Amino acid sequence: MLKITDARVIITCPGRNFVTLKIETSAGIHGIGDATLNGRELAVASYLTDHVLPTLIGRDAQSIEDIWQYLYKGAYWRRGPVTMAAIAAVDTALWDIKAKQAGLPLYQLLGGASRTGVMVYGHANGGTLEETIAEAVRYQAMGYKAIRLQSGVPGLASTYGVSRDKLFYEPADARLPTENVWSTHKYLPTVPKLFEAAREALGWDVHLLHDVHHRLTPIEAGRLGKDLEPYRPFWLEDATPAENQAAFRLIRQHTTTPLAVGEIFNTIWDCKQLIEEQLIDYIRATVVHAGGITHLRRIASLADLYGVKTGSHGATDNSPVCMGAALHFDLWVPNFGIQEYMRHTPETDAVFPHAYSFEGGDLHPGEAPGHGVDIDEALAATFPYRPASLPVNRLEDGTLFNW
Ligand code: GCO
Ligand code: MG
Known about the structure:
This protein is an alpha/beta fold. It has 2 domains: 4-105, Enolase-like, N-terminal domain (Enolase-like, domain 1), CATH 3.30.390; 110-367, TIM Barrel (Alpha-Beta Barrel), CATH 3.20.20. The chain is 35% helix and 19% strand. The protein is built from 14 helices and 16 strands. It has helices spanning 41-56, 64-73, 81-102, 106-110, 129-141, 184-187, 190-202, 218-228, 247-252, 272-276, 292-305, 320-332, 346-351, 377-380, and strands spanning 4-12, 18-25, 30-34, 118-126, 146-151, 179-182, 207-211, 235-237, 259-261, 282-283, 309-312, 336-340, 357-359, 362-364, 392-395, 400-401. An 8-stranded parallel β-barrel has the order 4-5-7-8-9-10-11-12, surrounded by 4 helices. Helix 3 packs across helix 11. The termini are far apart. Magnesium ion (MG) binds next to loops.
């Protein structure tokens, strides 16, 4: 028995807010888990501190599955992003502890490495098509094998994915939500032009991706997918909101462009139909927002049965703790597809010392026991929490729309 002796939540803002759970045990081994839910950080912190942590003290840290079931079934109110991020944090910290106790990197406990590295995609974005292409050329020169392209839309003041700061995209940019304006009519013709220019500049070896960020109807998404087919995109992401999983049938009827979805999913129930009906090609759920390693493993196993690959969310609002755990998962998971990778700021990297590293377009989780990521609590304390919200989006006539 490895008793849980203490568990606490650490909130820090080294450029953006992160919520981290630290669990300590009787053997002196500690583990950490990411609990960050962008724009709703304090809700998860309270869920953990007020409701979960008191039930953990004295339990056996080795009983990962039992604790997962206890927190999921025992809550009565199942699922939802707040609950599942809290469960994920506990689960990630416990896997970290178990692997440290074994003296092994986490991927060895999951079943060992299935590949030499984890292919990642980086983000090229720009206010104009030309700026985006220039940025993509830079990513190619850095060795990236896959690049996501997002470009400003003529006639719209701001566009999802296009940042002022080239290196560090951060949508939670103000205390209260900023308001963006959207026009599908203006957006739709820009993407095929962007991909045509990208193929000309970058060639055909590199994988190209695009994120629609939930903004099209299924038939509009079918049209965009069809228009992009000549440029062989790796995937079209979040083409339409996915609460209605059956909506993807309509997209599928019209295009062979691969579809990716799932960054906002928190359980297997959010994607069961999408996977079983083979309506998507990549499932983007990740450790922090989908119940930790224990639950993500179930989602990936279901996906594998239906030829669906993983493509985990890796935006900067997933802390380095989530990234570390995700990379161990990626190195092992048989049906791996790709991993998103947005670089964190130097301040964030300093607060979360980590064993993972980038080389030749791949990330590797490293060989440190556990998931290889820790937190410098003294440094974290120098970056106090700053409230920040994600934007909202309106159509040109003022109608509230999907951001
Ligand atoms: C992505 C995502 C992010 C989200 C962000 C919200 O594909 O990386 O769409 O950019 O908008 O994670 O918190
Ligand atoms: Mg996305």
